[in-house]
Predict the structure of ABC transporter ATP-binding protein.
Amino acid sequence: MRFPVRKFFSYYKPYLPLFLSVLACAFIVSALTLVFPLLVRYITKDVLEGDLSTALSEVYWIGGLMLVLVAIQNIGNYFVDYKGHEIGARMERDLRSELFAHMQKLSFSFYDKEKTGQLMSRLTNDLLQLSELYHHGPEDYLKYLIRFIGAFIILFFINAPLTIAVFCFLPFLGVFSLYFNKILNRALRRNKERIADVNAQVEDSLSGIRVVKSFTNELIEIEKFNRENNRFLDSRKNTYKAEAYFFNGVETFIQLITITVIIFGSTSIVNQILDLADLITFLLYVSFMIEPIQKLTHMSTQFQEGITGFQRFMEIMNLKPAIDNKSNAMTMPKVLGEITFQQVSFRYEDHLDDVFVNLSLTIQPGEYVALVGPSGAGKTTLCSLIPRFYDVTDGDVLLDGINVRDIDLQSLRKTIGIVQQDVYLFAGTVMENIRYGNPAASDEEIIVAAKHANADDFIMSLPNGYDSEIGQRGVKLSGGQKQRLSIARVFLKNPPVLILDEATSALDYESENIVKESLEMLAEGRTTIVIAHRLSTIRNAERIFVLTEDGIVEQGSHNELLARDGAYAHLYSKQFELQI
Ligand SMILES: Nc1ncnc2c1ncn2[C@@H]1O[C@H](COP(=O)(O)OP(=O)(O)OP(=O)(O)O)[C@@H](O)[C@H]1O
C-alpha cells in the first residue's frame, strides 16, 4: 500500500494556526542553536590569539548573551513540547473517532470476517504512536533540517575540502537508512498484526469465560493465549534485531565521519590550513550534523510505528460499507408493514451455495406469520434481508411496495423491531438499556414499556430499581429477565414490523409463558414474523411458511397444513413424538 500522503496531512487542518506557530517556534530554537559554536569560536580565537584582557571582558558579555539565548530556547522548547504534543494527541483522538464512526457504518458482512479483538487493536494500539509522528514528524524534520543545512554552510566556510569529505558519507548513509526503514516498517507491521491477534484471543477467551469454566478448559485457553503471546514475542525479536542492525550501522557511519574529521583536521592544522579554534568549531558543527542523524534514527521506530498504524487505519477507512444509502434514498412516511420477497436469491459472501433461490412470498400489513423449517434452512437469513443486514444476491425485497434498497437505511431500520434468542444488553442500568430502543424517550415512557413487557415487577425488586446496574451483557439478570428488557426496548421503539427470532426458545416453561404474553402484546397491530422451532408456539399464526432447502414448500394455517399432511405435518408429528 502506497502511503496516502495527502490524507495523512489533511488531519493537520483543524490545528493549522497552532501547528504553524509550533513550527515557527521550532525554527527559531534551531536557528538559535546554530549561534552557539560561533560564539565559542569567537571566544576561543580571542584566547588563542593572546588578547587576554579583551577576551575576558568578551567572555562576560558573550556568556550573558548565551544565557539570554538559552532562556529564549527553553521557553520556545516548552511551547513546542507542550503544544506540539497536545496537537498530536488531538489528531490521534480525531483519527480514532473517525475510525470508530466508520466502523459503525460497515456492514454485517465485514463483521462476519473480522475478529472483534483485532478491530479493538486497530482502534487503540495501532494509533498510539500517531500523536508522536504527527507532532515530532514535521517539527523534528524541520528542526534538524535547519541545523543540518546551517551546519553545512558554516562548515563549508570554515573548511570546504573537509566538509566535502564528511558529506561523501551521506549518500551511503541515506541508502542504508532507506533500506532499513523498509525492513523496520515490515517488522513493525507484523508486530501490530501479532498484538492484534493477542487482543483477539483475549477478547474471545474472556467473552466466553463461562463456557471455558464450565468445560474446565482454562489450560487450553492459557495455551492458546501463550501461543499468540509467543508469536508476538517472535515478531518483536525480529524488530529489535532490525533496529540493532540499523542503529549500529548508523553509529558506524557517524564514527567514520568523526575519525575522518579528526585525521583530516589534525593534518590540516599541521599543514597550517586550519587553526585550533576552527577545528573545535568544526567538530562542534559536525556534532550538530550528527545529532539530527542520531535522533532521527532513534525516532525512526516511533515514526515507522506511526506510519504502519496509519496504513492500517487507512485499510479500514478505505472500505466502503457493503450496504449503504442510495444518493436519492427515500425516508419512509407511515409504514403499513406489507413485506414482499420477489424472486429472491441469496448467497453469503465467499460461499459457494445459495441459501435460497427465487423465493417469493408476501406478508400482509398487520399479519402474524410464522416461519418454520429445518435448522440451517435460512429462516434467520431471510428475515435479515428485510432491514438490509445483507443485500439480496438477486430479486427484490419490498416494504409497502417500495424496494428496501431505495429506502434510507435509518428510516428502514426504524420500522423494524427484532427480538432474538440471543439478547445483547449493554453494561449500564436497566433504564439505559431500555432507553436504547428510543434515546429520546422519557423515564415515564420507559416504565410504561417495561410494564408492557412484564418487566416492571422484577425491575422494581432489583436493589436500585430502574437504576440497577445489570453488569457486562446483563450477567446479573436471568434469561427471561434479559428477554423482557429486550422486549421493553422494542416496545419503546414501537416499530410497525416485528421479527421474533426464536425469542422464547431458550427459556424455561414459566419464563416462556411470561415472555410469550408480552410478545403477544407487542405483536398487536404490527406485521409480525415469528421464527420458531417449537411448533406448538406458533399454532395461532395466521399463516405458516415452511422453508426448506427447496425454498418455501408449504404455506397455510396450522390446521390447513396438518390437513395437507406434508412437510409441516411431518415436522409437527416428529416434535409431538419427541415430546411424548
Ligand atoms: N453470517 C453468515 N455467514 C455465512 N454463512 C452463514 C451466516 N449466517 C448463516 N449462514 C449459513 O446460512 C445458512 C442459513 O442459516 P440461518 O441461520 O439463516 O438458518 P436458520 O434456518 O435460521 O437456522 P436455525 O433454525 O438453526 O437458526 C446456514 O447454512 C448457515 O451456515
